[in-house]
Specification:
Keywords: Lyase, Pyridoxal phosphate. This protein is α/β, with parallel strands linked by helices and about 425 residues long. About 35% of the residues lie in helices and about 15% in strands.
Length: about 425
């Protein structure tokens, strides 16, 4: 399979990737030029973007737009990125979750609520970054394998940008996620298999078809950088400081590793004090290969066959799994998992205490937070942030048989009184 992914006739313009200067292998450290490359030519390891940042001030960032492009100097995107049609994601709420904190016995808890993005998940961030790379590389088809949220984001972003989209999903995906992808008018392909089967097919197509940008495959180095904006926003919304602890859902693991990268970059640039923080990862027990490796003290993540209601986290062979282990161990965090029953309870707990209806991935995160407190693995006195990565309207089936009317009464005041509702 080819390790490049763009027509060879396309000329990349100067400044196409902002302050990005090279691609670096995360496995062996070998460097290569910026371009349509996603695997190391030396060891076939994954590539990520390296930078040479100029002096950047808080004031410069704060003067930017109320979306992720306020962090343009810290991303692999050109200075004029905001002038191209895009969904303008980001700058979502950081909610002071005092009710949930009191219930769990935490001193201070914040929820970074990314359900407020254009397609109601954090995937709009990474897709916006990938769309910029797709445009700069001259690619003509915007595509992805997806467990749902990414499908929504790619289809919407492509419609906004006027580019063709082709999205591949497991055929048993939640119905709301299928509908909220198909509505944008792109090509939606259901595949007979789980996400790992879909991802394998996407990788094969990416290696054979010129001009196809699979956002989380062959433009992954640029796509994944979008997750750093979660770290940037959290720090800025906390008054330009880092939290002491953060709990992050783990699917491929890219979100967790890039939030860590974002915190690190802010410290190096002097935009925040480089204080210590712990990173915790959350998985569903039915698809918890990273949590299992962490418990067993392994550096290698063994693939599993997913079996969980948390389909957006159901990646049995997570690409960033080993790097998630590295981050958790380096920062003193933990990777833990919770049952599907605990996931449902987590969804209801967040809704009941904070008025936030999260999807199953958020239920995993809340339930993992609760478990980490109960097992003494997370400090209840330390300021903590959790990530709500998506909207509960996408996974209604998870709680459909748990909630509903308390009582049905005739339309009369007597019936109201008789039901004891005063």
């Amino acid at each position: 399979m080819s390790l490049t992914a763009a027509p060879s006739t396309h000329t990349i313009r100067e400044g196409a990737f902002g302050n990005g200067t090279h691609l670096s292998c995360r496995a062996c450290g070998a460097k290569s030029e910026l371009g349509p490359f996603y695997a190391c030519m030396e060891c076939f390891g994954p590539l990520e973007v390296g930078y040479e940042f100029p002096a950047i001030t808080r004031e410069q960032i704060e003067a930017g737009p109320k979306n992720i492009w306020r962090y343009q100097p810290l991303l692999p995107v050109p200075t004029d990125v905001a002038s191209f049609p895009n969904t303008e994601p980001g700058y979502t709420r950081l909610i002071d979750a005092g009710n949930l904190a009191r219930e769990l016995g935490l001193r201070k808890l914040w929820v970074k609520d990314d359900s407020g993005n254009p397609t109601h998940s954090f995937k709009d961030r990474v897709v916006a970054s990938a769309l910029s790379a797709t445009r700069e590389l001259g690619m003509k088809v915007f595509a992805c394998p997806s467990t749902g949220n990414l499908a929504n984001a790619v289809a919407a972003a492509a419609a906004r940008a006027g580019i063709r989209s082709v999205v591949f999903i497991p055929k048993d995906l939640e119905r709301p996620k299928i509908i909220t992808t198909a509505v944008y008018g792109g090509t939606l392909v259901a595949v007979d298999g789980n996400y790992d089967d879909v991802n394998k097919l996407a990788s094969e197509i990416a290696g054979e078809e010129d001009g196809w940008a699979f956002v989380n495959v062959n433009v992954r180095p640029y796509y994944s950088e979008g997750s750093k904006t979660l770290a940037f926003e959290i720090a800025e919304q906390l008054g330009w400081r880092l939290p002491e602890q953060i709990v992050i859902p783990v699917a491929s693991g890219s979100q967790l590793t890039k939030i860590d990268k974002g915190f690190t970059e802010l410290g190096k640039l002097g935009l925040v004090d480089a204080t210590e923080y712990k990173v915790y990862g959350a998985q569903a027990t039915g698809c918890s290969p990273v949590a299992q490796a962490f418990r067993d003290g392994h550096d290698v993540v063994q693939p599993v066959k997913p079996d969980t209601i948390a389909k957006s986290l159901a990646i049995g062979n997570p690409a960033d799994g080993p790097y998630v282990l590295d981050v958790a161990r380096r920062t003193g965090g933990v990777i833990a998992d919770v049952s599907d029953e605990e996931v449902i309870e987590g969804i209801q707990l967040l809704a009941r205490t904070e008025g936030i209806f999260t999807e199953t991935a958020g239920g995993v995160t809340v339930a993992t937070l609760k478990k980490l407190i109960e097992t003494g693995q997370l400090d209840p006195e330390a300021e903590t942030v959790i990530i709500n990565s998506g909207d509960g309207l996408k996974t209604l089936d998870a709680v459909a048989d748990r909630v509903g009317p308390k009582v049905t009464i005739p339309a009369s005041y007597d019936a109201f009184v008789k039901a004891g509702l005063q």
